[in-house]
Design a protein that fits this description.
Length: 79
């Protein structure tokens, strides 16, 4: 994810500095214009990465249960 974000940020900034609109950049890179706008507004790529690192998931409270269920070696876990 980090590499892809850095590559997208670089490509979007390059196209934006060439004068392309957000909609055109989105079509060219097959990205939603809201994603392009977020990348254009970001001061640097670290800002984008920081937001992604601290995002919570709807599954966060269930992760311990899911891990136990998935990795439990007992045969009863399969039923």
């Amino acid at each position: 994810m980090v590499i892809r974000t850095r590559e997208r940020h670089s490509a979007i900034k390059e196209l934006a500095s060439a004068g392309m609109s957000i909609s055109v950049i989105g079509r060219k890179l097959s990205l939603n214009r809201r994603t392009v706008r977020r990348f254009v507004r970001a001061t640097d790529v670290e800002e984008l990465l920081a937001n992604a690192r601290f995002r919570t998931s709807l599954l966060d409270e269930f992760k311990p249960y899911l891990r136990a269920w998935l990795f439990d070696p007992s045969p009863s876990a399969a039923t």
